[in-house]
UniProtKB/TrEMBL annotation:
Its EC number is 3.6.5.-. GO terms for biological process: ribosomal large subunit assembly. The chain holds residues 1 to 309 of 604 of the full protein. This is Large ribosomal subunit assembly factor BipA. GTP binds at residues 14-19, 127-130. It catalyses: GTP + H2O = GDP + phosphate + H(+). A 50S ribosomal subunit assembly protein with GTPase activity, required for 50S subunit assembly at low temperatures, may also play a role in translation. Binds GTP and analogs. Binds the 70S ribosome between the 30S and 50S subunits, in a similar position as ribosome-bound EF-G; it contacts a number of ribosomal proteins, both rRNAs and the A-site tRNA. Its main location: cytoplasm. It comes from Maribellus comscasis. GO terms for molecular function: GTP binding; GTPase activity; ribosome binding; rRNA binding; tRNA binding.
Amino acid sequence: MTEIRNIAIIAHVDHGKTTLVDRILHQVNLFRENQEVQDLILDNNELERERGITILSKNVSVRYKDTKINIIDTPGHSDFGGEVERVLNMADGVLLIVDAFEGPMPQTRFVLQKAIDLGLKPIVVINKVDKPNCTPEIAQEKVFDLMFSLEATEDQLDFPTVFGSSKAGWMGPDWKEPTSDISYLLDEIIEHIPAARHKEGTLQMRITSLDYSSYTGRIAVGKVTRGQLVPGSQVSLVKRDGKVVKTVAKEIYLFEGLGKEKTKEPVPSGEICAVLGLEGFDIGDTIADGEEPEGLTPIKVDEPTMSMY
Ligand code: GDP
């Protein structure tokens, strides 16, 4: 079975998240411009305006050295609707991108705090080291001080640091010695971020976010944390108030590159997927099966709010 790494990206706006994700896609020979559009998804803002809800499902997945890396986007703004906590719950580690010139910014602090509290291991990427007069070592020290003040554990404080330039297309251990590509970063992810855990038992998958297809309507996105999710199977939705509703997980999609691919295979625990055809679901519900379907401990889901990014 393919090993999986689920990693959430944390970055202050403009520190280079988009450029880095593009580079990662390039490194594994996937290009945004060539990506086939798998299903028509309404422009997020449009849908948000229409429904007044936060839509989030910008997962990108790449395959590198027999490992699947699911890259989970985190909102850079403060935590409207409990979104940050929900998406971080799918991650097994975080990639913290910091501008070598600016250092960590207040906006990153909030998300980083949640990641630290959830016990996630960070990899720090000091980006934009090509900028004149940048101070990568100072940026790194500031990240350390910030994590210390956020009461990171010794293990979290022992974070690996990768220096580089997403724009120039390299990442390495030393900012003064450019490498030829960003494989060093991908190797560090595989080495330091724990593999997604398999957990035997009856199915449990918390619905973390929504996606939308104009053909089929609402799509539930989340991570299978126990058992497996079988396409076409009867499942139970355990609502946040404990009520149980029977429905069918009609179609299941896995994230591949920038899109999604339909799968006929059972989705194992540890993997993130999108489920189509579930009736009456809400964010925060647990998809479960068995005689006595068990819900996962509820996580904060506030009233829907507009996303700010
Ligand atoms: P995001 O808001 O975090 O997604 O940031 P972007 O990836 O959109 O980058 C913001 C700006 O910084 C863009 O103008 C990028 O071209 C620039 N940028 C990103 N990475 C680098 C880098 O490594 N070096 C330099 N000099 N500029 C960069």
